[in-house]
Amino acid sequence: MSEQLHDQQWLCFQIEEETYAHPVNQVREILDYLSPVPVPGAQSCVEGVLNVRGEIVTIVSSKHLLGLDDSARNSEHIIILETTSGLVGITVDEVEKISVLADDDMMPVERSHDTSPVKGTINHDNQLLILTDFERCINELENYE
Question: b/e for 30-43, b at 16 or more Cβ within 10 A?
């Protein structure tokens, strides 16, 4: 089997002091942070909605999904993801780069709860990357509603 089948491009970004990565194949675009319009009655992780090129996109706090304190907003970017549920924006502090990571090097982590986006870790260029699967936790949140 070709080695390329095991390598995948990941978008690396920062949230607080940690570096995270998400599969590039689900990323539609990256926006500078814009304040979303609040949605009354939405779940606490939902910051609001934005109109992105004529499509209404739900904006979700990555810090809230990760169980971090999201009271002080210092997000600089919104990563728009294409999910089976439609477009979803995830707020992040800083977008860094795209890295090619080998699936074989990933160390899976046990999820603490169903809505945790963390799926594993990987050591890449002497840096620990936390691998995420935001689509999975977004789908879990929609099933919760």
Answer: eeebeebeeeeeee
